[in-house]
Amino acid sequence: MLLEGKVALITGAARGIGKASALVLAREGADVGVADVLPEVEETAREVAALGRSSAFALFDVADPAQVAEGVGRIRDELGDIQILVNNAGVVTNIARLTKMTHEAWQREISINLSGAFNLIKEVIGPMIDRKWGRIINISSGAAAGGLHKQIGYAASKAGLLGMTKTVTLEHARDGITCNAILPGLIGTELANMMPEEIRDRAKAMIPARRMGETEEVGHLIAFLASDKAAYINGAEIRLDGGMGLNLGTLGSRKEIKEMDQ
After folding, report:
1. pLDDT tens per residue, range 203-224
2. Phi and psi (nearest 5°) for 204?
3. Do the bridges between strand 84-87 and strand 7-11 make them parallel or antiparallel, or are there none, so unpaired?
4. I need a labelling partner for 40 at 20 to 30 A (CA). Which of 33, 158, 206, 249 fits?
5. Pairing of β 237-240 and β 134-139
6. Does residue 29 register a pLDDT over 60?
7. Catalytic residue among 154, 155, 177, 218
8. Where are the alpha helices (DSSP H) in the chain?
9. Domains of the chain
10. What is the reported pLDDT for 114?
């Protein structure tokens, strides 16, 4: 197992990529703390425990530093110092053109998707430095590189994660800490599967692999990056998108996108 004896914390773990990744890390030997604002995260913790690993959960808003400190402290008390942090929590449903997006919606999205990751890193990195070992994986998005129609807040916040990832590497690689970003493309989460079939088909037609990714595929990449086998991968931006990134530069002008906006 890749992660025997390690303690991981995954945010946004009530469902989707976060939940699937928690179970993958548990199967690889890690004890896993899970956090979310949704109470369903307790079920994720139970499923981790059913795999024979220690688990703990906490309900908190990653945008609130005080809640982060309290929630991480609770998980640390049950599992020990966090050695692997996966910043997965994020808002994906703030849909509006720039001219119609409110300042409140913009600020909320930045506070969760970007400041939330900062808050978590600040909370867990001290013991990583002392231990001279740590893994931080930030879940960004292909939108960070190519933008995303009607989701300026999402694209900007996910792009900000890339700058954060590189800066953590520059400051803490010498401490035995790696910090990498994963840029998923279209992944078959609950929200993605709720999209109208016509839109899903159009999206898949833009992906060279002609399919959506599976949540477990993100989890397997996280597990590798969290392992000693990936110790020299640092500050990297890794696409996990079936080749969709090759098309991102032209997505904004595609006929399909224009039709969807009408």
Report:
1. 788 888 888 889 999 999 999 9
2. -65, -30
3. parallel
4. 158
5. unpaired
6. yes
7. 154
8. 16-27, 41-50, 65-79, 103-113, 115-131, 143-146, 152-172, 190-193, 197-205, 215-226, 248-251, 255-260
9. 7-260 (3.40.50.720)
10. 98
Residue type, 3: L
Q: What is the mean pLDDT of residues 23-42?
A: 98
Evaluate if residue 259 carries a pLDDT over 70.
Answer: no
CB atoms within 10 A of CB 183: 24
More confident position, 204 or 230: 230
Helices (H) and strands (E) in the chain, counts: 12, 7
Q: Which residue has the tokens 């037609």?
A: 205
By CB atoms closer than 10 A (0-12, 13-18, 19+), residue 174 is exposed
Single pTM value for the model: 0.91
Nearest alpha-carbon partner for 48 in 86, 2, 92, 13: 13
Q: Is there a catalytic annotation at residue 154?
A: yes
